[in-house]
Each structure stands twice: as structure tokens, then as C-alpha cells.
Amino acid sequence: MSKLAMFGGPAIVPRDQRTIKWPIVTPDDERAVLRVLGSGKFTSNTEGELEVKQLEEEWAAFVGSQHAVAVSNGTTAIAMAINYDKLITVARNGFATPLCTDHPASLVPGYQANAKCPKYDPAAANALLDQDGWVKGADGVRSKNGLRLDFKYTTTFLAWREAGQTLVQQDLSAIGIKTTLVNQSSDTFFGTTLPQGVPGVYDIGEFENTYTYDADDALTLNCASIPSKANDFGGQNYSFACDPNRDKLFDQEQATTDPVARQAIFNQLHDNYLATFPFITLYAPVNATIVKNTAQCPTRVEHYLPLSSVVLKICRETTCCLFDISSCLIKGQGKTIEKFYKLLCLSQQRGLSHC
User: Which of 2, 36, 250, 295 is the most exposed place for a label (fewest CB within 10 A)?
Assistant: First the structure.
């Protein structure tokens, strides 16, 4: 038997007859693309979008699976792997509400009650990473082309943050992602780790952002706010993600005072966030205060609308990711609230605070 062509043997198809171009684009492919462009629905979160759902159903039927989940990137798998309810009940002792954008209920316009949040589905997250070629090794950690899903997960020393770190670490381990937990002082975390954005130092970061009375989030997500030497590493876009389409929407929402128009623009931004995942929101911490009533007992505890959100981003090569938890405060223990800790860290730009 002669050698195979790949080992130096004769080619079955002569070189001068190898005229097939790749990829093959058929008229059906062209019509499908034009159909999507004509619909104006470019993400799976857009109301009335059917292409992604049909793709999932057809692919599941083709491979003989009961379900299929189409997602945009690996960060989407992480969003599906996190048990948000457990974070709220365990790490926050119930002092938080569900949220998947960066605009909590106190921001109107801004808050979107019907945002299409990622559902907790570790089986689907595992399937997604399998389909994308990330293979689990003997230690259970996934790798692909020599790269391992092995990250440092950094935040400050607050007890409830450390509790949340442990829960997220368990969730990510279940889908083959290893995390090493790191805790730093606020000065180091916000002064060096986040703005420098060095992979291997800042891989996953958890922190809180608090907007004031307006939902404008351009300074934390636009291209110009990415920390760099040009701005003395003073930018607050700690995701290091730049999207010109988002920048156009930021310009539009800043150019109008019409609350209805601004809400529509914020909804478009949310569609973008939940399709591309420059961050993953974990929850909205609930602000609380303890008030001593000198005339009557017992002490009264008041709860206020959440002012913030929690997000996750991951650094790969020069692209960074983070947890953004947006409101500062509170810890209760058991049924008796023994002590509350309130931290307020004000930045110098537009009243934004980091805690």
C-alpha cells in the first residue's frame, strides 16, 4: 500500500483540480444573513427575536440532544454557572435582591424589570465549554490550545465578600474553572490592581459601584474610560472592554432628558451587556440602617432600595474581567442584627463611589 498523501504519498486529487473555496457560502446562507439584518434584531435578548431559538432547536435535533444553548462567549458560560440565589441568601444574609444589569431598582430611568437575565444552569454551562473545545484534565480544570481556565479571583477583606468568593469558587469549579482566592486592602485593590489590569494579577475582581441619582454608566463602561497611561490610569472601566456601539448609545442617553427615551436607550445597553457580557451582575445589595428609638423599644431597622449591582469579568491576555457589586454596606447575623458596617468610598468623578 502506498503512503498517504499527508505522509508524502501521491495525492488523489491533483493540485490543479483543487478549486473549492472555503468557507462555502450558499444562497441560503446569504438570505439568512439578510433576513437577520432586515429584522434589526441582532441579539438573543431582543424582544421578538426567533433566529437563536430556532438554531438551538435545530442543532439539538441534529445532534440528538434534548436541549442546546447558543451563547456568545465563555463569559456567558460563567454567567450560567453562578447560583445567584445562594449568594443572596448565604453571602448577603438576604440583604440583596436579584439583578442582572448595572441599574438597580432605585434608578428610574435605568432599571429594567423585564431584562432577560441568565438562568442558573451549570449543566448547560458545562455543555457550552465542551462544545467550544475546553477539555477537562485529570485535575478537573479545563484547557484548550495550551491555555488553562485558571484565574486569580481578587477582592477586599470584607467578610461577606470572602463568603461570596467561596461560593463563586465552588460554582466555577463545577464547570472546570479553577480560581485562587486573593484578598487585598482597598488601597491596593482600587489603587493598583484594578486600574493596572495586569493579567495574572487581576484576572477576576469583585467590587461595588454605586451610581448617584442618575443611571448614566458611561464612565464605567465607555472606551475612553479604560485605564491607561494616557489618563494616568484614572479611568474606571475596569472591564477593559471597548465597544463603539455602546459608546454611541452612551452619547444618545446623555443627549436627552426625556425619561422615556433614556429608558429605551438603557434597555438597548442592557441587551448589549447581556449578549456580550463585559461584566456579570450578581445581585443588588440592599442598603439598611439601624435607628435607635429613644422613646420606644426595640431598635428599628429600615431597609432602602438597592443602589448598586454585582458583576463578573475575566482577564484573558490583555482583556480583563471583574465583579462589580454596586452598593456599600451592611451585615446582619442571624435574626438579631448585632452590628452594621458601612463603607463609603467616593471617587472624584461624577459622584461615583467604589466600596
Answer: 295
Q: Quick check: is 173 in a domain?
A: yes
DSSP state of 297: S
**Residue 245 and residue 108 share a domain:** yes
Residue 256 has which C-alpha cell?
Answer: 436627552
Please report, for the domain that includes residue 294, its CATH number: 3.10.105.10
Do residues 50 and 126 both lie within one domain?
no
How many helices (H) does the chain have, and how many strands (E)? 11, 14
In the three-class reduction of DSSP (H, G, I as helix; E, B as strand; rest coil), residue 351 is classed as coil
Whole-angstrom distance, CA of residue 70 vs CA of residue 279: 18
- Rounded to whole angstroms, the Cα distance separating 205 from 187 reads 14
User: What does the pLDDT look like over 307-329, one tens digit per residue?
Assistant: 556 555 544 333 222 333 333 22
Say which DSSP state 119 is in: P
Containing structural domain, residue 257: 73-354
Mean pLDDT of the chain: 77
Q: What is the pTM of this model?
A: 0.67
Q: Identify whether residues 54 and 95 lie together within a single domain.
A: no
The 10 Å Cβ neighbour count of residue 243 is 15
| pLDDT tens readout for residues 201-229 | 889 999 888 887 899 999 999 999 999 98
C-alpha cell at 57: 432547536
Most confident among 4-13, 253-262, 304-313 (mean pLDDT) = 253-262
